[in-house]
Amino acid sequence: MPAHMYNYTIPALLRGLGVLQSYLDKMRAAVDAGQCTGEELLQARLADDMLPLGRQFQIACDNAKNGPARLTGQEAPWFVDNEQTIGEYRYRVENTIAFLRTLTPEAFEGSQARMIDQSYRRVGSAMAAEDYVRALLLPNFYFHMAVAHAILRYKGIRLGKSDYLGALPGLAPRPMTSSTDGPPVRFLTQAESIEWLAGRGLREVPTTDEPGNSYFQFDLQPLPVRLSDLIGSLMEDLGEFDGGLLLLSDWIWDDEYEGDPTASYREAQKEARPLNEAPGLLLDKSARQDAVALLTLLVERKWTGQLYFASGATTLRIVEGDRVHVYTVNPEAERLVRYRLVVSGGDVLPI
Fold first, then answer.
1. What is the pLDDT of residue 3?
2. In degrees rounded to 5, what are phi and psi of residue 75?
3. Using a CB cutoff of 8 Å and minimum separation of 24, what contacts does 49-57 make?
4. What band does 41 get if pLDDT is binned at 50, 70 and 90?
5. How far apart are the C-alpha atoms of 226 and 296, rounded to whole Å?
6. Can you tell me the distance from the alpha carbon of 65 to that of 76, in angstroms, rounded to the nearest whole number?
7. Verdict on whether the full-model pTM lies above 0.90
8. Of 30, 148, 150, 317, which one has the greatest count of Cβ atoms within 10 A?
9. How far apart are CA 216 and CA 46, in angstroms?
10. CA 138 vs CA 135, 221, 253: distances in Å
11. Which domains does the chain have, with CATH numbers?
12. In sequence order, which residues have a C-beta less than 8 Å from that of residue 337 and are 6 or more positions away?
């Protein structure tokens, strides 16, 4: 039951790291308002024999990355512990989040039977994985979160219990609904697709020097990870998916042995027109998994196409299934994608 250990750890750690991000944002706001200096906050402590606030952030991140790495038998990223500014501590938290997002439920296969060596804390014994999570990993992580909260309150930063709890899930899951009256996926002709882009002020092929935009590229193949998992993770790194348009521009298959690889998908959406008549797929924001599945198909088939986020914030262009070009206004995207690729065995390519 790998999903059991994944669900027990990763969502809780990601939520807590998000809380630490919000604390760092409040610290930055206090410094900008002249309430204190960043160094004053990061060196603050509740008692002389306690570790300062900066170390609370460092140790919380170490717990969050090292614990799941031990459970899955993977190598966690190594941090130098040389942060000196609020921005550098935020970078550490973001890198920790990026690592956790590379871990899938499948990575936890066999974790319940794993014994966790305790020599890292100078104890000559091992703990069963579930005992480790319940008695050490999560309590230790929450301890450093709580101490960071207390130090910030002590220094006059306005925080309450709601800040510590962070964003809570609803009491019951709400049914997924579309943001339009139509189906979550609709098919457009080439002309309709161009009209959709023009109505949002988007270029069919973005320029690399658009003001305020970041442009970078990387190769998706070959990487020693499951393609659909990697694409799903990369979509998260690029920002919130609010719907968009996937426009296929170059494709081929062997008519002698197979039909249109998208035919079954089109039939499921009650679309009778073939790919050459309707190469655009308009995706509602509820169709994120459809976007991941379609991008995976595009890469596997070595086709060319573009995914335009409806907000206009990001365009993802895949050329012949190998090279990926990203145009985005998200200033954090390249760093998050670069880290994702590094832990997956690849890297962002020089332009």
1. 58
2. -90, 125
3. 50/147, 52/151, 53/148, 53/151, 53/152, 54/83, 54/89, 56/144, 56/145, 56/147, 56/148, 56/151, 57/20, 57/24, 57/83, 57/89, 57/92, 57/93, 57/144, 57/148
4. very high
5. 10
6. 6
7. no
8. 148
9. 44
10. 7, 36, 50
11. 2-165 (1.20.120.450), 185-349 (no CATH)
12. 216, 218, 234, 237, 238, 326, 348
- Position of tokens 């921005």? 87
CA dist 117 and 104 (Å) reads 22
pLDDT at 175 over 60: no
- Separation between Cα atoms, residue 188 and residue 41, nearest integer Å: 54
Pair of tokens at residue 91: 């970078």
Residue type, 137: L
Predicted confidence band at 311 (pLDDT cuts at 50, 70, 90)?
confident
| pLDDT digits 0-9 by tens, 189-241 | 988 888 888 888 788 888 777 766 789 998 887 777 778 888 888 888 888 88
* Residue type at 10 in one-letter notation: I
> Within a 13 Å sphere around the CA of 283, how many CA atoms are in the beta-carbon half?
26
